[in-house]
Amino acid sequence: MTNADLKITEPKKNVVEISFKFKGSKKWAEMTRNNVEKMIAITIDDQVYALPTVMFEIRNVKAMISGLDNEETAISLSRALNEKR
Questions:
Q1: What is the 3-state secondary structure (H, E, C) of the chain?
Q2: Is the pLDDT score of 70 beyond 80?
Q3: Cα–Cα distances in Å, from 3 out to 9, 19, 81?
Q4: Distance set, CA 83 to CA 5, 42, 57 (Å)
Q5: How would you classify the pairing of strands 6-12 and 42-44?
Q6: pTM of the predicted protein model
């Protein structure tokens, strides 16, 4: 997946909410289905920002990256994802 698959992201406390474009949501569903109970890397320019564990398949156009250290991390990650779209 790439940032081209994203519509927009928004920080909410220590979580980043992601809204996908239609094709991006299909890719996300497939990726999450194939990686349940595994960690995935959220990277930008080869820098790892988060290593969330996929809890279940996500089939809708929204997802959340939780477990971030703090609100500043969420803001930084959201800003970086939005800038790269």
A1: CCHHHEEEEEEECCEEEEEECHHHHHHHHHHHHHCCCCECCEEECCEEEECCECCCCCCCCEEEECCCCCHHHHHHHHHHHHHCC
A2: yes
A3: 10, 11, 7
A4: 13, 15, 27
A5: unpaired
A6: 0.80
Map out the domains of the chain with their CATH numbers: 3-83 (3.30.1360.200)
- Of the candidates 63, 55, 69, the residue with the CA atom closest to the CA atom of residue 16: 63
Q: How many CA atoms, within 13 angstroms, populate the side-chain half-sphere of residue 11?
A: 17
pLDDT at 66: 86
What are the pLDDT digits (tens) for 17-66? Answer: 999 999 999 999 999 999 999 999 988 888 888 888 999 999 988 999 88
Mean pLDDT of the chain: 91
